From TrEMBL:
Major localization class: membrane
GO cellular component, one term: membrane
UniProt KW keywords: Cytochrome c-type biogenesis, Membrane, Transmembrane, Transmembrane helix
All copies of domain ResB-like, residue ranges: 33-504
InterPro entries, per the entry: Cyt_c_bgen_Ccs1/CcsB/ResB (IPR023494), ResB-like_domain (IPR007816)
Identification of the protein by name: Cytochrome c biogenesis protein ResB
Topological type in the membrane: Multi-pass membrane protein
Gene Ontology BP annotations: cytochrome complex assembly
Pfam families: ResB
Transmembrane segments: 89-111, 177-198, 452-471
Length: 519
């Protein structure tokens, strides 16, 4: 290397952080208070779609309706897991990051807080009069007397030669710390519920029963640590469903109340007991809660095939198409019909009224004049034995529907069927009879072991945040020089100086009072 190259000034190169440095920076960023607040906001923001978009675990019927009415939007919702928000990958990621952030924030703050509790208040400054709050008075006050009076006001006190130092307001940091611990407790409770809890949805028709087994559910969502033996062995029968509606005024047809009367067996050996299941009044059996979340109609049909045999008879739960009038779409399948399988598309009208054009609609959600419209009758292979799952609200997949033989369409049966009436299919292949009306309810059964801990943690968080907001840290210093007493005070909480002025005046008044000390 030449002399000119040695003399040439060199541009300093920035030092790289390296892998360890980047890890430290990432950990500090993740465990900072700002990051925790951002993650908490994201968690709350991510919960909004769970309240706005129907969830598969709570309202599977509304999810199916959305797919029918707007399949493109429903597919986008499904891609972003908006039909199962609280079980989605992105919600779990935010949850785990917030959990890690809180742990990384709480541990060092707890260590700092414990050191602060053991530390005595600092010595009084030589000139307390220079502090933001100060006062001077003459009196025969001793350091011991000042310490006793400050202790009676619940100050932590340290004394020295002619001075007293006092501090108060440690509960502020206690509340702050317990608020973070409570948030962590809520997350732990939610995690425990996800691991050891379960949810299930089932539709029950009047007169039918339900047993709390995996096979009885229409949809079952267990935690990873839940087995079939984990379910509480209770059962019940739906004896009756009573629904009351507003019959007059602008809110005509609005539901006022509905109650499901159950016959409940808490265990296989227990005797049946009566229970009225209502909205927000769940059935509770040893921590397993059953909620009433919906209702509808299940008209009863009887299908006779071409050989004169009953191929199907029973109630058919219908999917609500108009919530205001409870007009519902029904599907009846008779795969055992001979010589060909039979299927029907129907519309149930709880209170059927004719229009001027000859069509019929439902005018009221209550069961005042129940009738059934035959929208279509088909024969052929419905595909129910193909091994592919089918919806009870769908007659057949589109590719199967193309192969079916249409027997009747809506124009062939303009007048709906009343209870007891029937319609004969052409060619003598069968008959459909409308025999009665029942109602159904949808239930959600949930077991969540983290429910009570989450409630306790939530209550703790409210109390803790109140402490951290209402209590302020403040210090008071007293210097005694002969008969002259100097008192100074300051706050350690930003923005609380104005509120401390009146308290400081009371402290000075108590120190300067001539009354005897209580020993």
């Amino acid at each position: 290397m030449s002399v000119q190259e040695l003399d040439k000034p060199r541009t300093p190169r920035p030092a790289g952080l390296g892998p360890v440095g980047w890890l430290r920076w990432g950990w500090r960023t993740l465990t900072s208070m700002r990051t925790a607040l951002i993650l908490l906001f994201l968690l709350a923001l991510g919960s909004v779609p769970g309240s706005v978009v129907p969830q598969r675990g709570v309202e599977p019927g509304k999810v199916a309706t959305l797919y029918e009415q707007n399949p493109t939007l429903a597919e986008w919702y499904d891609k972003f897991q908006l039909f199962d928000v609280f079980g989605s990958a992105w919600f779990a990621a935010v949850y785990l990051l917030l959990f890690t952030s809180l742990v990384g924030c709480i541990v060092p703050r707890t260590a700092t807080y414990l050191r602060e509790l053991r530390r005595k208040p600092p010595a009084a400054p030589k000139r307390p009069a220079r502090l933001p709050h100060s006062a001077t008075f003459d009196g025969e006050l001793t350091a011991e007397q000042a310490a006793r009076r400050l202790r009676r006001m619940r100050f932590r006190v340290a004394t020295g030669d002619g001075w007293v130092s006092a501090e108060k307001g440690y509960l502020r940091e206690t509340g702050n710390l317990f608020f973070h611990i409570a948030l962590l407790g809520i997350l732990v409770a939610i995690g425990a519920g996800s691991l050891f809890g379960y949810r299930g949805n089932v539709l029950v028709v009047e007169g039918d029963g339900f047993a709390n087994t995996v096979a009885a559910y229409d949809r079952f969502m267990p935690g990873s640590q839940v087995s079939a033996e984990s379910l509480e062995p209770f059962s019940f029968q739906l004896a009756d469903l009573k629904v009351s509606y507003q019959v007059t005024g602008e809110r005509k047809g609005q539901v006022l109340d509905y109650s499901a009367h159950l016959k409940v067996n808490d265990s296989p050996e227990a005797e049946a007991r009566d229970y009225d299941l209502k909205v927000n009044e769940p059935l509770d059996v040893d921590g397993t809660q059953t909620y009433l979340i919906g209702n509808g109609y299940a008209p009863v049909f009887k299908v006779t095939d071409g050989k004169g045999q009953v191929a199907f008879e029973g109630p058919v739960p219908c999917l609500i198409e108009d919530k205001n009038t409870m007009a519902s779409g029904c599907v009846v399948k008779a795969p055992d019909a001979q010589p060909e399988q039979l299927g029907f598309l129907l519309r149930f009208l709880p209170t059927s009224v004719p229009l001027t054009d000859g069509s019929h609609v439902s005018a009221f959600p209550g069961e005042l004049n129940p009738e059934v419209q035959v929208l279509g009758a088909f024969s052929g292979d419905l595909g129910v034995r193909s091994g592919r799952p089918q919806s009870v609200y769908e007659l057949a997949p589109p590719e199967v529907m193309k192969k079916l033989n249409p027997l009747l369409m809506a124009s062939d049966t303009p007048k709906p069927l009343a209870v007891g009436q029937s319609v004969d299919l052409p060619g003598g292949v069968g008959k459909l009879q409308f025999t009665g009306v029942k109602e159904w309810i949808t239930l959600q059964t949930a077991y969540d072991p983290g429910r009570v801990p989450a409630l306790v943690a939530g209550g703790t968080a409210v109390v803790a945040i109140a402490l951290s907001l209402m209590i302020r840290r403040r210090r008071v210093f007293v210097r005694i020089d002969g008969g002259k007493v100097e008192v100074g005070g300051l706050t350690r909480t930003e923005g609380s100086a104005a509120g401390f002025t009146e308290e400081f005046a009371d402290i000075v008044q108590a120190l300067s009072a001539g009354e005897k000390d209580v020993r």
